[in-house]
Amino acid sequence: MNRKPFTFLAAVAGLTMVASACSEEGGQQAEGGGDVETPEMTIALITHQAPGDTFWDIVRAGAEDAAAKSNITLDYTSNPEAGEQATLIRNAVDKDVDGIAVTLATPDALQGAIDRAVEAGIPVVGLNTGIDHWEDAGLTEYFGTDETLAGEAFGERLNDVEAENALCVIQEQGHVALEERCRALGETFDGESETLYVDGASMPDVSSGITSKLQEDEDIDYVVTLGAPFAMTAIDSVEDAGSEAQVATFDTNRELVGALENGDVEWAVDQQPYLQGYLAVDGLWLYNTNGNISGGGEPVLTGPTFIDQDNIDEIAQYAEEGTR
Predict the structure, then answer these.
(1) CATH number at residue 66
(2) Is residue 250 a contact partner of residue 149, using CB atoms and an 8 Å limit?
(3) Cα 107–113–114 angle (5° rounding)?
(4) H helix intervals, the chain
(5) Which of 180, 207, 268, 279 could form a disulfide with 143 if both were Cys (CB 3.0 to 4.6 A apart)?
(6) Which regions in the chain score pLDDT beneath 70?
(7) 143 and 283 Cβ atoms separated by less than 8 Å
(8) Which CA distances in Å does 6 have to 75, 279, 300?
(9) How many domains does the chain have?
(10) What pTM did the predictor assign?
């Protein structure tokens, strides 16, 4: 597959920019100057998003903004089932897209489809999930957070507040990033840590699972969720169970901001999903137009950072806009 025209057009665009710059004063474009044209591309963004998971709205917003900036047609599809996600990758290959950005929640199940894309000459980058697998999978770049570091930092935070018994709620069993968060948390946390598996596609199941566990074990003093929607559900579960446990979480959304502001959620670990979507699409554009590869063979990290009552005011405006 010949993708060289992108490089040629990028060079032409670059010359146009230089010529335009020569006719500008004070950084403003001269009267009558034309817009710089960029090559048209189609990039597929394929994730393991489950229905109703608002986290992915933020990822998609970043990807769409990057696409709009660079004359890219973004083809967004998702499926929480690994086999279906692999099919979506194959479909993108059949469409002869110019790049694929994919999440690696279940790397082994996607490998055959990724191999097919690479063999077709289509660059593939990873985002959000799969930081320990992207190189072996043959991806060009990876954009996301270090899940081990995030889990360890969370465990240390639990130590700082002198927690004793934490319940780590995983909404998708076998998801490599979620499993790693709870594993790293448990290794760092000085208290007792237990994992609870729930069906993240069914909030009633999430709610009943957490409520039942809290009623069964009154010693649990922290419920740790791995996504903002599940944190909001956990707040209600704590109340329903008559528990005094606190709620803390990984990841954010607009609704979680209010919960952080009023203290219903103690803190959230932010991996900047908007940035993940933006950088994945922009990374493919840069690779196709100029051969650029970010990270120098290492993942490009977008987190983790903590959000709590001390800094929520700084984040709230961006959350309202759907970018944090």
Answers:
(1) 3.40.50.2300
(2) no
(3) 65
(4) 4-22, 55-69, 82-94, 107-119, 147-160, 176-188, 203-216, 228-241, 254-262, 273-290, 312-320
(5) 279
(6) 1-37
(7) yes
(8) 19, 19, 24
(9) 2
(10) 0.85
